[in-house]
Amino acid sequence: MNSPAPDARPSDGRAPDGRAPEGYAPEGCAPEGCAPEGYGSEGYAPERVDYVDPRDRVVTQGGRTAGPPAGLLRRYAATVCTDSTGRVLLYRRTASAPAYPGHYDVLVGGAVRSGEDYRAAALRELREELGWERAPGLTEAYRIRVDDPHGACFLTVHRWVADRAPRPDPQEIAWCGFVAPLAVLTGGYTPLVPAGAEAVRRLFPR
User: Fold this and answer.
1) Residues 9, 23: Cα–Cα separation, whole Å
2) What is the DSSP string of 23-91?
3) Phi and psi of 108, rounded to 5°?
4) Cis status of the peptide bond prior to 191, with omega within 30 of 0
């Protein structure tokens, strides 16, 4: 299904293309600009990440912004968040995002740092990007290899039912809100990050 027709406006106040009007704070999200001071991992302060072999075994470490050595992959951890009614947290990346700028996504996450496991990285990313200091009940949903134009990696996706409102970091997230998974599955929000689209298909089958 394409985006809503030009004369249609969703009942939650979004514009016809699914984007939020200027200053709009969707249900469940605090307004932009209220993230705790200092949050924002995409500034790419110097940090090291593990590079792994095709069996997800650590081989070496290197700088985050450097490409992986030949034949090795990065590790990424992400979480798909829902609310108590089953709606999924959807967000739009900022226009300055280094990968997929301006795209919608349901995967909240990033690179696994050296010495971290996937779960620890997922919890850190929830804290940095959405201000959630803890996520009781976080569980691993699946782990796959992703051959993405931005680099091959292992991606571990977690699930978590949010028990409080997020506080999005405006350096990372331009807009966010809880929406019906079916609206994402049927193309109501485009463009959508490919790995995020795959997560919705896997976790919310029709």
Assistant:
1) 17
2) T---TT-PPTT-SPTT--GGG--S-EEEEE-TTS-EEEEEETTSPPPTT-BEEEEEEEEE-TTSPEEEE
3) -100, 110
4) yes
**pLDDT tens digits in sequence order for the chain, 206 residues long:** 333 333 333 334 344 344 443 333 344 454 333 332 222 344 445 689 999 999 999 999 998 777 788 899 999 999 999 999 999 999 999 999 988 999 999 999 999 999 999 999 999 999 999 999 999 999 999 999 998 766 789 999 999 999 999 999 999 999 999 999 999 999 999 999 999 999 999 999 98
Q: Which two tokens stand for residue 32?
A: 């932009």
Q: Which residues contact 180 (CB under 8 A, 6 or more apart)?
A: 87, 88
Collapsed DSSP state (helix, strand, coil) of residue 196: helix
List C-alpha distances in Å: 55 to 10, 26, 52, 89, 112.
45, 41, 7, 31, 16
Token readout for 36 is 């705790």
